[in-house]
Amino acid sequence: MKDSYDILNAGCKFHGDGNSFGYCRESTISTATKDIDQLACQLMEKLNERSTAMANGGQFQLALRDAEAIQFIYPSSSLGYLRAGTIYQQQGRQKEAVAIYQEGLVNVPSSDACYTSLQMQQADASNAANKRIDFISRLPLELVASGILPLVFHRCKLEADVPCPYLYVSRTWRQRILNCNNLSFRLNYGPMNSTLQFRELERFAPHVKKLRMDARRAVSYEDPLLIFGDFHFLNLTHFNLNYAGYEDYIITSALRSVQHSLTHLKLYTEKNYTLGIDLDRVLDDCPNLVSLDLATWTILHLTVQHPKLTHLTLQIGIDPLPKDKMINVLSHLPSLVFLDLFLLRDHRFVTALSVYCPKMKILRCIDEVSSGHDSYDERVDGLQKLYFGAQCDDEPYDAHGVVIQILLEHKHSLDHVTLAGSITDASGGFDGPVMDSTFQFDRLQELVVDARNEELVKLALSIIHRSPHLCTITMDHLTATDDGVCNAVKRLPNLRMITAYQMPPDAPSFQDLLIHHAQLGMGSSLKELNVTFEVDSQRFPWISALAELQTLEKLVLSTWHISAASTYLSILGIFGKVCPSLTSLDLDFWDCTIPDGSVTQIKHHPTLQRLCINASSISDSDLISLLSFPSLKHVIIIPTIKGYLLNLLQTRISRVEQRHP
């Protein structure tokens, strides 16, 4: 039982000493006790009324707090337990209701007028908790397939040797689930004695839609790829294989066994073990592929058209890959809409892209691994998203022959452009089109620049001047500290988000940009700001300007190194009561420990509703400070914290997430 103080019965424990003075004391205590009884009863009555109203309005957490207050005031009364149990039952939380009713039956005397109600409510909640509805058997199969199973198996990768409980509820459940042919299995490399280790995968192989495998060939282990000769994958559409130590014919044999159904393939290996399978061979063995993600060190000429393939990702180990080979690849893939070429250095082929791949929407030629396929608008002709360059390459790319040419060709369709690295002299690149005063990037909304030389900064400036619809811009420190760029960004009427990386303490151009939006007051369009910086003992003048932004709703402060904790605390102290529209704040410390007192510096912010803390550790005192925020509703904590502190936060804040790094 929770610690409590029985206010109503406290006066009964006093015993007078029998003399006149004792009698007077006893009379005073008795009178005071009666008054307290009356006030306490009135308070409990009002708490019960308020709790009922809040629960009926869906404010269950607040309603529970009032119910707990009643229990604290009078722990031997049934009122608080009945109120809390009713709230739990309103939410369908029958087990919690049973528990609170049981607590009441222990603490409340049987003489209580509502003791029988406690017993009846507990029985009712217990029956409800034990009730099971076989919804999968009763609902239409179409609804089960489209609505229920995606929720049940959301991001669920079944293990090859671990039974899935949903498949063993009943025969009806199993059959309904299997009829959807939508199972997703994961098979990890390990010391397996025989394929009996794959009994679950074997049993349900005909109904597996997605399979992810790590396969390393070793003499002492059973070869996991043998399953493709023994099992029958009749509906496998997505196959992700990371392999090493196999000859090509073993891999291609496995692929041919599922070629009739396979539409999405990811095939990765390491050069130390094997050179990878040639693109031509993979496409020939899997003629129904729609999406292919392939790591290879051999690119031979294609000889057959593959019109079904729309998405191609190549991690290419050949350096350089001749232009004629890339032209050959493109000429045999007429339906491509997505092309991702990782680690490719020769980009001259892009000038022929629209000739051979007229449906292309997304082109990635950048040394950055893609997190997935971007969305695009099928109604818009031309390239919509361009990712170009290399952060780690010292050799500049051809500005006029490649970069500017593709930008000009798709100026009416591009909505996202990422440029990285360095380029050759870009001066005069837009001179021809500029003669037409209407020349602009009609749909460009997002620009990302990671410049390694001034020429790329100049090109970025030219793009900004011609992009009136830009609403999101990401800049490295070289770009964000350029006077011309910051002045051009000031004139963007629809700018909603700025991201600036590796910002130095002294950045007057960036500071002027923030001051400009601060002076606009509520007329500023800026809603989100993401800044990465290193904290040392120096002052950050632009922080003060940032704090004056009236329309800023979301702020992300990231730092990879803190050498002066006091400086960081002073930075956070500025945000205590400023940024009146701020509702979301992310404090990202990467692998750093959050300086003690950081949360305390901002705990009085009046409008902050969401706070995310990503650090290697956080002090208990800062965690306790989270309880002091007046409007905080959602907290995300990345470092692992003590269980009792997590429970405390979850009882006081509507939504608390403990995430792992």
TrEMBL record:
<keyword id="KW-0802">TPR repeat</keyword>
<dbReference type="InterPro" id="IPR032675">
    <property type="entry name" value="LRR_dom_sf"/>
</dbReference>
<feature type="repeat" description="TPR">
    <location>
        <begin position="78"/>
        <end position="111"/>
    </location>
</feature>
<dbReference type="InterPro" id="IPR019734">
    <property type="entry name" value="TPR_rpt"/>
</dbReference>
<protein>
    <recommendedName>
        <fullName>F-box domain-containing protein</fullName>
    </recommendedName>
</protein>
<dbReference type="GO" id="GO:0019005">
    <property type="term" value="C:SCF ubiquitin ligase complex"/>
</dbReference>
<dbReference type="InterPro" id="IPR011990">
    <property type="entry name" value="TPR-like_helical_dom_sf"/>
</dbReference>
<dbReference type="GO" id="GO:0031146">
    <property type="term" value="P:SCF-dependent proteasomal ubiquitin-dependent protein catabolic process"/>
</dbReference>
